[in-house]
Amino acid sequence: MAGMVEIENAEKTYDGGFQALKGVSLSIEEGEILALLGPNGAGKTTLISTICGITMPTGGSIRVGGHDVVRDFRAARSLVGLVPQELTLEPFETVWSAVRFSRGLFGAKRDDAYLDELLRRLSLYDKKHSQLQELSGGMKRRVLIAKALSHDPKVLFLDEPTAGVDVELRRDMWDIVAKLKETGVTIILTTHYIEEAEAMADRIGVISAGELLLVEKTTDLMARLGRKELRIALSAPIETVPEGLSDYDLRLEDEGETLIYTYDTQAERTGIARLIGSLSEAGLSIADVETTQSSLEEIFVGLVRKEDDEGDAA
Ligand SMILES: Nc1ncnc2c1ncn2[C@@H]1O[C@H](COP(=O)(O)OP(=O)(O)OP(=O)(O)O)[C@@H](O)[C@H]1O
Ligand SMILES: [Mg+2]
Protein backbone atom coordinates (compact mmCIF):
# COMPACT_ATOMS: atom_id res chain seq x y z
CA MET A 1 0.00 0.00 0.00
CA ALA A 2 1.29 3.45 -0.89
CA GLY A 3 2.06 5.74 2.04
CA MET A 4 0.08 8.83 2.97
CA VAL A 5 3.07 10.91 1.92
CA GLU A 6 5.34 9.59 -0.84
CA ILE A 7 8.53 11.49 -1.56
CA GLU A 8 10.70 10.29 -4.41
CA ASN A 9 14.08 11.83 -5.01
CA ALA A 10 12.86 15.32 -4.09
CA GLU A 11 15.24 18.14 -4.90
CA LYS A 12 15.08 21.81 -4.17
CA THR A 13 17.45 24.39 -5.57
CA TYR A 14 16.55 27.92 -4.49
CA ASP A 15 16.62 30.78 -6.98
CA GLY A 16 20.07 31.92 -5.91
CA GLY A 17 21.37 28.47 -6.89
CA PHE A 18 21.61 26.98 -3.41
CA GLN A 19 20.63 23.31 -3.31
CA ALA A 20 18.74 22.76 -0.06
CA LEU A 21 17.43 19.25 -0.86
CA LYS A 22 19.64 16.77 -2.68
CA GLY A 23 17.33 13.93 -3.63
CA VAL A 24 15.27 12.96 -0.59
CA SER A 25 13.13 9.80 -0.71
CA LEU A 26 10.73 8.87 2.04
CA SER A 27 7.39 7.17 2.51
CA ILE A 28 5.20 8.04 5.50
CA GLU A 29 2.34 5.76 6.51
CA GLU A 30 -1.12 6.93 7.44
CA GLY A 31 -1.37 7.56 11.18
CA GLU A 32 2.37 7.57 11.65
CA ILE A 33 4.36 10.16 13.60
CA LEU A 34 7.67 10.96 11.95
CA ALA A 35 10.24 13.27 13.50
CA LEU A 36 12.80 15.00 11.33
CA LEU A 37 15.96 15.79 13.21
CA GLY A 38 18.76 17.89 11.87
CA PRO A 39 20.98 20.88 12.59
CA ASN A 40 20.13 24.47 11.56
CA GLY A 41 20.01 24.81 7.81
CA ALA A 42 19.74 21.05 7.21
CA GLY A 43 16.66 21.44 5.00
CA LYS A 44 13.85 20.45 7.39
CA THR A 45 11.66 23.49 6.74
CA THR A 46 12.41 23.28 3.02
CA LEU A 47 11.29 19.65 2.93
CA ILE A 48 8.08 20.43 4.79
CA SER A 49 7.41 23.45 2.57
CA THR A 50 7.71 21.39 -0.59
CA ILE A 51 5.32 18.74 0.75
CA CYS A 52 2.81 21.44 1.76
CA GLY A 53 3.06 23.15 -1.61
CA ILE A 54 4.52 26.37 -0.21
CA THR A 55 7.67 26.04 -2.31
CA MET A 56 7.99 24.08 -5.54
CA PRO A 57 10.36 21.13 -5.62
CA THR A 58 12.83 21.50 -8.50
CA GLY A 59 13.22 17.75 -9.00
CA GLY A 60 11.65 14.43 -8.11
CA SER A 61 8.03 13.93 -7.09
CA ILE A 62 5.94 14.30 -3.95
CA ARG A 63 2.46 12.90 -3.42
CA VAL A 64 0.07 13.42 -0.52
CA GLY A 65 -2.84 10.99 -0.34
CA GLY A 66 -1.99 10.00 -3.90
CA HIS A 67 -2.12 13.59 -5.21
CA ASP A 68 0.98 15.10 -6.79
CA VAL A 69 1.80 18.34 -4.96
CA VAL A 70 2.62 20.15 -8.21
CA ARG A 71 0.19 18.77 -10.80
CA ASP A 72 -2.66 18.20 -8.37
CA PHE A 73 -1.89 21.08 -6.03
CA ARG A 74 -5.37 21.84 -4.67
CA ALA A 75 -6.26 18.27 -3.79
CA ALA A 76 -2.88 17.72 -2.14
CA ARG A 77 -3.04 21.02 -0.25
CA SER A 78 -6.50 20.33 1.13
CA LEU A 79 -5.12 17.26 2.91
CA VAL A 80 -2.37 19.06 4.83
CA GLY A 81 -2.22 21.42 7.77
CA LEU A 82 0.91 23.30 8.76
CA VAL A 83 2.05 24.91 11.98
CA PRO A 84 4.90 27.05 10.70
CA GLN A 85 8.21 27.62 12.44
CA GLU A 86 7.64 31.38 12.61
CA LEU A 87 4.72 32.27 14.85
CA THR A 88 2.39 34.79 13.29
CA LEU A 89 -0.94 35.76 14.82
CA GLU A 90 -3.07 38.89 14.63
CA PRO A 91 -3.19 40.37 18.16
CA PHE A 92 -6.76 41.69 18.03
CA GLU A 93 -8.32 38.70 16.34
CA THR A 94 -10.32 36.28 18.51
CA VAL A 95 -9.58 32.58 18.73
CA TRP A 96 -12.88 31.82 17.05
CA SER A 97 -12.42 34.16 14.11
CA ALA A 98 -8.84 32.92 13.62
CA VAL A 99 -9.87 29.29 13.25
CA ARG A 100 -12.92 30.11 11.15
CA PHE A 101 -10.88 32.25 8.82
CA SER A 102 -8.26 29.49 8.40
CA ARG A 103 -10.95 26.99 7.53
CA GLY A 104 -12.39 29.40 4.99
CA LEU A 105 -8.98 29.80 3.36
CA PHE A 106 -9.16 26.16 2.35
CA GLY A 107 -12.57 26.64 0.86
CA ALA A 108 -13.99 24.16 3.37
CA LYS A 109 -17.72 24.38 4.14
CA ARG A 110 -18.61 26.19 7.35
CA ASP A 111 -18.81 23.67 10.19
CA ASP A 112 -19.05 25.31 13.60
CA ALA A 113 -19.64 22.02 15.36
CA TYR A 114 -16.31 20.67 14.08
CA LEU A 115 -14.49 23.84 15.16
CA ASP A 116 -16.09 23.80 18.61
CA GLU A 117 -15.01 20.20 19.03
CA LEU A 118 -11.50 21.09 17.86
CA LEU A 119 -11.23 23.92 20.40
CA ARG A 120 -12.41 21.57 23.11
CA ARG A 121 -9.82 18.98 22.14
CA LEU A 122 -7.10 21.61 22.40
CA SER A 123 -8.46 22.98 25.71
CA LEU A 124 -9.17 26.33 24.09
CA TYR A 125 -12.94 26.30 24.24
CA ASP A 126 -13.24 28.66 27.19
CA LYS A 127 -10.99 31.14 25.35
CA LYS A 128 -13.08 30.98 22.21
CA HIS A 129 -13.97 34.70 22.29
CA SER A 130 -10.68 35.99 23.72
CA GLN A 131 -8.38 38.14 21.64
CA LEU A 132 -5.14 36.40 20.75
CA GLN A 133 -3.11 39.05 22.58
CA GLU A 134 -4.82 38.01 25.82
CA LEU A 135 -3.54 34.44 25.57
CA SER A 136 -0.45 32.93 27.15
CA GLY A 137 2.36 31.67 24.93
CA GLY A 138 1.19 28.07 25.30
CA MET A 139 -2.36 28.95 24.36
CA LYS A 140 -1.12 30.81 21.29
CA ARG A 141 0.67 27.65 20.20
CA ARG A 142 -2.55 25.74 20.61
CA VAL A 143 -4.34 28.32 18.48
CA LEU A 144 -1.76 27.75 15.73
CA ILE A 145 -2.47 24.03 15.92
CA ALA A 146 -6.22 24.69 15.86
CA LYS A 147 -5.78 26.87 12.76
CA ALA A 148 -3.72 24.14 11.08
CA LEU A 149 -6.43 21.58 11.89
CA SER A 150 -9.35 23.88 11.05
CA HIS A 151 -10.08 22.19 7.71
CA ASP A 152 -9.73 18.67 9.13
CA PRO A 153 -6.50 17.73 7.29
CA LYS A 154 -5.21 14.19 7.10
CA VAL A 155 -1.57 15.21 7.55
CA LEU A 156 -0.31 17.72 10.09
CA PHE A 157 3.11 19.33 9.88
CA LEU A 158 4.61 20.83 13.00
CA ASP A 159 7.77 22.79 12.28
CA GLU A 160 9.59 22.97 15.61
CA PRO A 161 6.47 23.02 17.74
CA THR A 162 8.35 23.40 21.00
CA ALA A 163 11.21 25.73 20.12
CA GLY A 164 11.71 28.10 23.02
CA VAL A 165 8.91 26.76 25.21
CA ASP A 166 9.33 25.63 28.80
CA VAL A 167 9.48 22.01 29.89
CA GLU A 168 5.88 21.89 31.06
CA LEU A 169 4.56 23.27 27.81
CA ARG A 170 6.71 20.87 25.85
CA ARG A 171 5.18 17.89 27.68
CA ASP A 172 1.80 19.42 27.04
CA MET A 173 2.57 19.49 23.32
CA TRP A 174 3.63 15.85 23.45
CA ASP A 175 0.23 15.00 24.95
CA ILE A 176 -1.58 16.95 22.25
CA VAL A 177 0.35 15.12 19.54
CA ALA A 178 -0.38 11.74 21.15
CA LYS A 179 -4.11 12.59 21.24
CA LEU A 180 -4.07 13.70 17.61
CA LYS A 181 -2.46 10.43 16.64
CA GLU A 182 -5.42 8.63 18.18
CA THR A 183 -7.70 10.46 15.76
CA GLY A 184 -5.74 8.97 12.87
CA VAL A 185 -3.88 12.12 11.78
CA THR A 186 -0.47 11.55 10.22
CA ILE A 187 2.06 13.86 11.87
CA ILE A 188 5.41 15.07 10.64
CA LEU A 189 7.35 17.25 13.01
CA THR A 190 10.77 18.78 13.07
CA THR A 191 12.76 19.28 16.20
CA HIS A 192 16.23 19.90 17.54
CA TYR A 193 15.36 18.08 20.74
CA ILE A 194 16.30 14.46 20.50
CA GLU A 195 14.38 13.54 23.64
CA GLU A 196 11.34 14.99 21.95
CA ALA A 197 11.73 12.83 18.86
CA GLU A 198 12.29 9.87 21.14
CA ALA A 199 9.18 10.64 23.18
CA MET A 200 6.77 11.26 20.31
CA ALA A 201 7.88 9.68 17.07
CA ASP A 202 7.26 6.21 15.65
CA ARG A 203 10.15 6.81 13.28
CA ILE A 204 12.99 9.27 13.18
CA GLY A 205 14.62 10.71 10.08
CA VAL A 206 17.98 12.42 10.37
CA ILE A 207 18.60 15.11 7.79
CA SER A 208 21.83 17.00 7.24
CA ALA A 209 22.96 19.29 4.41
CA GLY A 210 19.92 18.45 2.27
CA GLU A 211 20.29 14.70 2.54
CA LEU A 212 18.30 12.20 4.53
CA LEU A 213 21.00 10.23 6.34
CA LEU A 214 18.64 7.64 7.76
CA VAL A 215 15.05 6.87 8.63
CA GLU A 216 14.42 4.25 11.22
CA LYS A 217 11.95 3.12 13.82
CA THR A 218 12.74 5.00 17.01
CA THR A 219 13.18 1.81 19.01
CA ASP A 220 15.36 0.17 16.33
CA LEU A 221 17.55 3.23 16.07
CA MET A 222 18.13 3.20 19.79
CA ALA A 223 18.96 -0.48 19.79
CA ARG A 224 21.10 -0.51 16.65
CA LEU A 225 23.26 2.45 17.43
CA GLY A 226 23.02 2.39 21.17
CA ARG A 227 26.16 2.11 23.16
CA LYS A 228 26.01 1.29 26.77
CA GLU A 229 28.06 2.34 29.71
CA LEU A 230 28.87 0.12 32.62
CA ARG A 231 29.43 2.30 35.67
CA ILE A 232 31.51 0.56 38.27
CA ALA A 233 31.54 2.08 41.75
CA LEU A 234 34.85 1.19 43.41
CA SER A 235 35.15 0.36 47.10
CA ALA A 236 38.07 2.78 47.34
CA PRO A 237 38.93 5.65 44.97
CA ILE A 238 41.94 5.41 42.63
CA GLU A 239 43.97 8.20 41.03
CA THR A 240 44.56 6.70 37.59
CA VAL A 241 43.36 3.69 35.64
CA PRO A 242 45.86 0.88 36.44
CA GLU A 243 48.32 -0.17 33.69
CA GLY A 244 46.84 -3.65 33.48
CA LEU A 245 43.52 -2.21 32.33
CA SER A 246 44.85 -0.11 29.46
CA ASP A 247 43.27 -2.44 26.87
CA TYR A 248 39.79 -1.40 27.91
CA ASP A 249 37.81 1.71 26.97
CA LEU A 250 37.73 3.10 30.51
CA ARG A 251 37.52 6.46 32.15
CA LEU A 252 37.45 7.64 35.74
CA GLU A 253 34.80 9.88 37.24
CA ASP A 254 33.54 11.02 40.64
CA GLU A 255 37.07 11.78 41.91
CA GLY A 256 38.27 8.29 41.17
CA GLU A 257 35.34 6.49 42.75
CA THR A 258 33.62 5.44 39.53
CA LEU A 259 35.15 3.60 36.61
CA ILE A 260 33.16 3.83 33.38
CA TYR A 261 33.40 1.18 30.69
CA THR A 262 31.83 1.92 27.30
CA TYR A 263 30.82 -1.00 25.11
CA ASP A 264 28.83 -1.75 22.02
CA THR A 265 25.57 -3.57 22.72
CA GLN A 266 25.70 -5.10 19.22
CA ALA A 267 29.23 -6.48 19.54
CA GLU A 268 29.69 -10.24 19.67
CA ARG A 269 31.35 -9.88 23.03
CA THR A 270 30.78 -6.99 25.38
CA GLY A 271 34.02 -7.75 27.24
CA ILE A 272 32.31 -7.29 30.59
CA ALA A 273 33.20 -10.69 32.01
CA ARG A 274 36.85 -10.29 31.07
CA LEU A 275 36.91 -6.77 32.49
CA ILE A 276 35.55 -7.93 35.85
CA GLY A 277 38.35 -10.53 35.98
CA SER A 278 40.97 -7.91 35.09
CA LEU A 279 39.66 -5.57 37.78
CA SER A 280 40.19 -8.09 40.50
CA GLU A 281 43.64 -8.95 39.10
CA ALA A 282 44.46 -5.25 39.35
CA GLY A 283 43.42 -5.37 43.00
CA LEU A 284 40.30 -3.28 42.62
CA SER A 285 37.14 -4.23 44.45
CA ILE A 286 33.68 -3.37 43.23
CA ALA A 287 31.05 -1.74 45.45
CA ASP A 288 28.30 -1.57 42.86
CA VAL A 289 27.61 -1.67 39.11
CA GLU A 290 25.04 0.01 36.93
CA THR A 291 24.49 0.22 33.16
CA THR A 292 23.18 3.20 31.20
CA GLN A 293 22.22 3.46 27.54
CA SER A 294 23.64 6.36 25.57
CA SER A 295 21.06 8.88 24.48
CA LEU A 296 19.85 9.41 20.96
CA GLU A 297 21.44 12.84 21.25
CA GLU A 298 24.91 11.33 21.31
CA ILE A 299 24.02 9.07 18.39
CA PHE A 300 22.72 12.02 16.40
CA VAL A 301 25.74 14.21 17.05
CA GLY A 302 27.97 11.29 16.09
CA LEU A 303 26.13 10.75 12.80
CA VAL A 304 26.20 14.38 11.73
CA ARG A 305 29.84 14.74 12.71
CA LYS A 306 30.79 11.62 10.73
CA GLU A 307 29.08 13.10 7.68
CA ASP A 308 31.07 16.33 8.12
CA ASP A 309 34.36 14.42 8.33
CA GLU A 310 33.56 12.54 5.14
CA GLY A 311 32.69 15.83 3.47
CA ASP A 312 36.04 17.29 4.51
CA ALA A 313 37.93 14.29 3.18
CA ALA A 314 36.25 14.50 -0.22
N1 LIG B 1 14.06 31.17 0.26
C1 LIG B 1 15.32 30.74 0.31
N2 LIG B 1 16.23 31.14 -0.62
C2 LIG B 1 17.49 30.67 -0.60
N3 LIG B 1 17.97 29.80 0.29
C3 LIG B 1 17.12 29.35 1.23
C4 LIG B 1 15.76 29.79 1.31
N4 LIG B 1 15.16 29.18 2.32
C5 LIG B 1 16.10 28.40 2.90
N5 LIG B 1 17.28 28.50 2.25
C6 LIG B 1 18.52 27.77 2.57
O1 LIG B 1 18.28 26.39 2.50
C7 LIG B 1 18.95 25.71 3.57
C8 LIG B 1 17.95 24.89 4.37
O2 LIG B 1 17.09 25.78 5.06
P1 LIG B 1 15.89 25.26 5.96
O3 LIG B 1 15.14 26.44 6.43
O4 LIG B 1 15.17 24.22 5.20
O5 LIG B 1 16.69 24.59 7.16
P2 LIG B 1 16.13 23.94 8.51
O6 LIG B 1 16.64 22.54 8.57
O7 LIG B 1 14.68 24.15 8.62
O8 LIG B 1 16.91 24.81 9.59
P3 LIG B 1 16.43 25.31 11.06
O9 LIG B 1 16.70 24.19 11.98
O10 LIG B 1 17.35 26.46 11.32
O11 LIG B 1 15.00 25.72 10.97
C9 LIG B 1 19.68 26.79 4.36
O12 LIG B 1 21.01 26.82 3.94
C10 LIG B 1 18.95 28.05 3.99
O13 LIG B 1 19.82 29.17 4.05
MG1 LIG C 1 13.45 25.18 9.89
Automatic annotation (TrEMBL):
The keyword Transport applies. InterPro entries: AAA+_ATPase (IPR003593), ABC_transporter-like_ATP-bd (IPR003439), ABC_transporter-like_CS (IPR017871), ABC_transporter_ATP-binding (IPR050763), P-loop_NTPase (IPR027417). Residues 5-234 form the ABC transporter domain. GO terms for molecular function: ATP binding; ATP hydrolysis activity. Keywords: ATP-binding, Nucleotide-binding, Transport. Pfam families: ABC_tran (PF00005). It comes from the Bacteria. This is ABC-2 type transport system ATP-binding protein. It comes from Roseivivax lentus.
